[in-house]
Every structure is written in structure tokens, then in C-alpha cells.
Amino acid sequence: MTTWTPLHKGSGGEFVLDGISYRIDRLETGADAVLSVVDGPSVAVAEGLGRTPWAVRTHDRFYTFDRTIDRWTEQQLVVRGRSVGAVRQAGRSGRHAAAELPDVPDPVAVFVMALVLDMWREHERRAR
User: Fold this and answer.
1) Cα–Cα nearest to 49, from 106, 124, 101, 123
2) Cα dihedral 105, 92, 74, 71 in deg (nearest 10)
3) Residues 108, 44: contact at Cβ < 8 Å?
4) pLDDT tens track for 39-92
5) 9: burial class by Cβ within 10 Å (0-12, 13-18, 19+)?
6) pLDDT for 85-118, tens place per residue?
């Protein structure tokens, strides 16, 4: 689908999807992030990153993500109290993920995956 290119320092990065360039910026708090079209409008905002639950808001939708205490490597998409999809760690390193995010637009799904990979990387860094 695309390749997300993280920033060499800090969080965030860029990706291209269907010829459109997107940028992910983490806000100063570290708990929020914005997905924008490069030189264009914002597409989605993530709030409460690193917490459980956390959320992604677009102009017309609200997505909630949660994890169980024992499953840091899986972030579940929750709708009306039920898990309907997830981003799961693929492999042992925390550098790869597989996602099943039904009804989530592709740019927002890539945003979610990039944020989850960032959370895993930060969690691994703190564990050292």
C-alpha cells in the first residue's frame, strides 16, 4: 500500500498514498498527533497516545483503540464496546505490524499503524 518514512529523530514522518503526500506530526505533549496532507488540511487527530483507550478523530468519524493489560502488542479497534479490528505486532522486534481496520479509510489506517509502531518503539526504549 505504502511505506511510512519516520523522522530520524522524534516521532512522526511521511508517506505517500494514491499520489497524495501525508505528514504525521506529534504534538509537544507527545500524547497527540495530527495527520495532514502535506501543504494541505489536516485529515485526522489522535488523542491520548500511550494511554488506554486512545482515539482517532476525523472530520466525520471517531475511532477508539484499546489494549488488554497482557497484550501490549495488540491495539484493538473498538466500536460500541466490541473489538472489530486490530493492529497486531508481526514478528518479535516491534518494527512490523499487521492491521485489520474495517471501514477505516486507508490514510487513517496508515496513520494508526505508524502511531502504534511509534508507541511500541517508545515502550521498548523505556524497557531498556
Assistant:
1) 123
2) -170
3) yes
4) 999 999 999 998 889 999 999 999 999 987 666 788 999 998 899 999 998 876
5) exposed
6) 999 988 766 677 889 999 999 999 999 998 988 8
Residues constituting the chain: 128
User: Binning pLDDT at 50, 70 and 90, where does residue 32 land?
Assistant: very high
- C-alpha–C-alpha distance, residues 65 and 52, integer Å: 7
- What CA–CA distances, in Å, run from 66 to 1, 86, 95, 108, 124? 25, 9, 19, 17, 18
Say how many C-beta atoms besides its own lie within 10 A of residue 46's C-beta.
24
| Kind plus residue range of the DSSP H or E element containing 25 | strand 20-26
Which segments of the chain does DSSP mark as H helices, in order? 106-127
pTM of the model: 0.89
